[in-house]
């Protein structure tokens, strides 16, 4: 296998929540491999866009609130009209709310489920219609360690990320024969906005680090290689996988 199997030149990737953190890291990695990028989210991904255009890749920003599925079809349409295609979808946009299960509110449940699983499924559906029509496409969902474990004080997040693992497998079963690859990345404990509270808690952060064999929090760039692999020809016979990128967390 040559490095050309990982080349994404001429491909168009749609990444949700690419303004910061994991989404930004993935978008940059895909652009470095040659892909043009559409970024969809409620916060403009201007910094991400500047870095991508500096690489010589095309970039468009799509304003969309993924708390609702209302903008899903528009996001796909704007990607197609703005960049001329859609080859890769990364369902990265995510939300987390922390509270003891006994006190968890319906609003915190619904908000997290709407962004993390409902919008991811319907984004996959809309992109899948395009990809099935062209006989090819890569969908990458962002799962979590809590796709495998229960977690603490994050009931809706755990439910949504368990759901992401299931939906990834379901879509792979339905669409693999149509030329699509649907897989997921399960990041470990990453230094992003979603983990700011954990990292600020010295005792909790220390406990987490003690369990990570790599001995450090992950960085958004740590997902780049796996994302490029899943978006490229190199993963053409991989389907329904949930790949941990966790510094060895699950090995403990």
Using brief descriptors, characterize the structure shown.
252 residues, Rossmann fold, seven-stranded parallel sheet, 7 strands, 15% strand, globular
Describe this structure in words.
The chain has 252 residues and is of the alpha/beta class. It has one domain (3-191, 219-244): Rossmann fold (3-Layer(aba) Sandwich), CATH 3.40.50. It contains 8 helices and 7 strands, in the order βαβαβαβαβαβαααβ. The chain has a 7-stranded parallel beta sheet, with helices on both faces. α1 links the parallel β1 and β2 (36-41). α1 packs across α8 (224-231) and α4 (106-134) packs parallel to α5. The mean pLDDT is 96.
Tally of individual helices:
8
**What class would the helix/strand composition place it in?**
alpha/beta
Number of strands: 7
> Runs with pLDDT <50, length 5+?
none
Describe how the helices and strands are arranged.
Blueprint: E1 12-16, H1 21-32, E2 36-41, H2 46-54, E3 59-63, H3 72-83, E4 88-91, H4 106-134, E5 137-142, H5 155-175, E6 180-187, H6 196-200, H7 202-211, H8 224-231, E7 242-245
Parallel strand pairs: 1-2, 1-4, 2-3, 4-5, 5-6, 6-7
Helix pairs in contact: 1-8, 4-5
Q: What is the compact description of this entry?
A:
This protein has 252 residues and is α/β, with parallel strands linked by helices. 42% of the residues lie in helices and 15% in strands. Strands 3-2-1-4-5-6-7 form a 7-stranded parallel beta sheet, sandwiched between helices.
């Amino acid at each position: 296998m040559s490095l050309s199997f990982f080349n994404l030149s001429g491909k168009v990737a749609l990444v949700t929540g690419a303004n910061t953190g994991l989404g930004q890291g993935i978008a940059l990695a895909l652009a470095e491999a040659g892909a043009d990028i559409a970024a969809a989210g409620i916060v403009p991904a201007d910094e991400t866009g500047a870095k991508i255009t500096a690489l010589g890749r095309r970039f468009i920003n799509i304003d969309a609130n993924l708390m609702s599925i209302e903008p899903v079809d528009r996001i796909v349409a704007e990607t197609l009209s703005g960049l001329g295609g859609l080859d890769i979808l990364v369902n990265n946009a995510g939300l987390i709310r922390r509270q003891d299960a006994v006190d968890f509110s319906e609003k915190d449940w619904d908000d997290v489920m709407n962004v993390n699983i409902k919008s991811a499924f319907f984004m996959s559906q809309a992109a899948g219609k395009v990809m099935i029509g062209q006989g090819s496409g890569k969908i990458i969902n962002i799962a979590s360690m809590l796709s495998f474990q229960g977690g603490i004080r994050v009931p809706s997040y755990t439910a949504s990320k368990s759901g992401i693992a299931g939906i990834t497998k379901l879509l792979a079963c339905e669409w693999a024969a149509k030329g699509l690859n649907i897989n997921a990345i399960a990041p470990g404990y990453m230094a992003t906005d979603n983990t700011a509270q954990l990292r600020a808690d010295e005792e909790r952060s220390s406990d987490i680090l003690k369990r990570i064999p790599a001995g450090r929090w992950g960085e958004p760039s740590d997902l780049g290689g796996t994302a490029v692999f899943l978006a490229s020809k190199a993963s053409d016979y991989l389907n329904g996988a949930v790949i941990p990128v966790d510094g060895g967390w699950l090995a403990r």
